[in-house]
């Protein structure tokens, strides 16, 4: 065996062992997730878009990433020509669409389309509408970015993608265990408890499955951390800043009923506002803004979901 192979094999075994131990609390008689061999995968263009979102891309860079994907291009042109944008002349070129919509927004739309496409074959379950689920994820991402802006964070753009993917474990449960998840939805409807509480009782917490999937996709650790702790950012005497912002965004979207998605986390945002250093006045301004643009969000994103 070559020296390089001898060095890599133990590391690979240790990584697999750590992953298995990490998921042990998640085992249940109903759950075979550790035995799943084939998972949905992100298209390569999604990783290139994430790289762009991490920096400050030029129009030409973004166009180069998207232009050869006809589906992406068509949907972005659809958004650019929608009533949401309200342009007087029809937009025919991707470059013009990026100019009109903005580099950041087109990057986010394109990345979101990639995520949606992974789970496109899925059908709605009773009490679980996939369109509403994605609208909730988008609304959480938009709200998280606004909160990050209000806190004057330098890397505000990543909070949209954190918000978009925070509940990804839930749609993975629909993909892997549709019948079992439908039972969980029915139990939540009857009990009135949070959907997470019902998932945990069934051994199918979306916080664990989301973390697992995002790690399998090879996304940066921050994504997995948010998926795992966006319900519990106060963890073992530690305050997890990024999950806290997503929790506040998630809670705000549910409190305002921006999307019809039952069983989500609601509550008093005051402890999070205090810990994050966000004033009540500024938070109220965020709420007023979201209330104003709620229909605009639905109109804009209906062209890509």
Short overview:
65% of the residues lie in helices and 1% in strands. It folds into two domains: 42-118, no CATH class; 124-305, Hypothetical protein af1432. The chain has helices at 3-23, 44-53, 59-66, 70-80, 94-101, 103-118, 130-150, 158-165, 168-176, 178-191, 195-202, 206-216, 221-229, 241-255, 270-276, 280-301; strands spanning 234-235, 238-239.
**CATH superfamily membership of the largest domain:** Hypothetical protein af1432
Radius of gyration: 20 Å
Please report the first level of CATH classification, the CATH class of the largest domain.
Answer: Mainly Alpha
Cα distance spanning the termini: 49 Å
Number of H/I helices: 16
- CATH architecture term of the largest domain: Orthogonal Bundle
Give the rounded overall mean pLDDT: 86
Globally, the shape reads: globular
Classify the beta-strand content into a percent band. under 5%
- What's the total number of strands? 2
Specify the biggest β-sheet: 2 strands, antiparallel
CATH topology assignment of the largest domain? Hypothetical protein af1432
Write the layout of secondary structure elements.
Layout: H1 3-23, H2 44-53, H3 59-66, H4 70-80, H5 94-101, H6 103-118, H7 130-150, H8 158-165, H9 168-176, H10 178-191, H11 195-202, H12 206-216, H13 221-229, E1 234-235, E2 238-239, H14 241-255, H15 270-276, H16 280-301
Antiparallel strand pairs: 1-2
Helix pairs in contact: 2-3, 2-6, 3-5, 4-5, 5-6, 7-8, 7-14, 7-16, 9-10, 9-12, 10-11, 12-13, 13-14
Detailed description of the structure:
The protein has 305 residues and is mainly α. The chain has two domains: 42-118, no CATH class; 124-305, Hypothetical protein af1432, CATH 1.10.3210. It contains 16 helices and two strands. The chain has helices spanning 3-23, 44-53, 59-66, 70-80, 94-101, 103-118, 130-150, 158-165, 168-176, 178-191, 195-202, 206-216, 221-229, 241-255, 270-276, 280-301; strands at 234-235, 238-239. It has a two-stranded antiparallel ribbon with strand order 1-2. A hairpin with a 2-residue loop joins β1 and β2. The longest helix has 22 residues, at 280-301. The model is unreliable at 1-8 (pLDDT under 50).
């Amino acid at each position: 065996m070559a020296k390089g192979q001898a060095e890599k094999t133990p590391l690979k075994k240790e990584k697999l062992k750590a992953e298995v131990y990490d998921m042990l609390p998640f085992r249940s008689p109903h759950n075979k997730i550790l035995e799943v061999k084939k998972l949905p995968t992100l298209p390569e263009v999604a990783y290139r878009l994430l790289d762009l979102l991490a920096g400050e891309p030029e129009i030409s860079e973004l166009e180069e990433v998207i232009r050869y994907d006809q589906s992406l291009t068509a949907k972005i042109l659809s958004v650019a020509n929608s009533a949401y944008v309200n342009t007087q002349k029809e937009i025919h070129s991707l470059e013009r669409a990026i100019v009109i919509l903005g580099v950041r927004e087109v990057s986010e739309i394109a990345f979101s389309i990639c995520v949606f496409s992974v789970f496109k074959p899925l059908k709605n379950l009773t009490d679980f509408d996939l369109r509403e689920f994605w609208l909730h994820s988008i609304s959480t991402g938009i709200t998280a970015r606004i909160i990050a802006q209000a806190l004057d964070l330098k890397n505000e753009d990543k909070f949209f993608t954190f918000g978009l993917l925070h509940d990804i474990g839930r749609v993975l449960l629909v993909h892997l265990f549709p019948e079992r998840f439908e039972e969980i939805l029915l139990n939540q409807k009857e009990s009135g408890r949070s959907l997470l509480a019902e998932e945990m009782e069934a051994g199918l917490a979306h916080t664990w499955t989301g973390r697992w999937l995002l790690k399998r996709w090879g996304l940066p650790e921050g994504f997995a951390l948010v998926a795992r702790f966006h319900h519990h950012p106060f963890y073992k005497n530690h305050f997890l800043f990024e999950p806290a912002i997503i929790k506040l965004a998630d809670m705000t979207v549910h409190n305002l009923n921006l999307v019809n998605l039952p069983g989500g986390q609601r509550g008093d945002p005051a402890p999070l506002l205090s810990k994050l250093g966000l004033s009540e006045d500024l938070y109220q301004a965020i709420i007023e803004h979201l209330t104003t643009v709620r229909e605009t969000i639905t109109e804009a994103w209906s062209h890509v979901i």
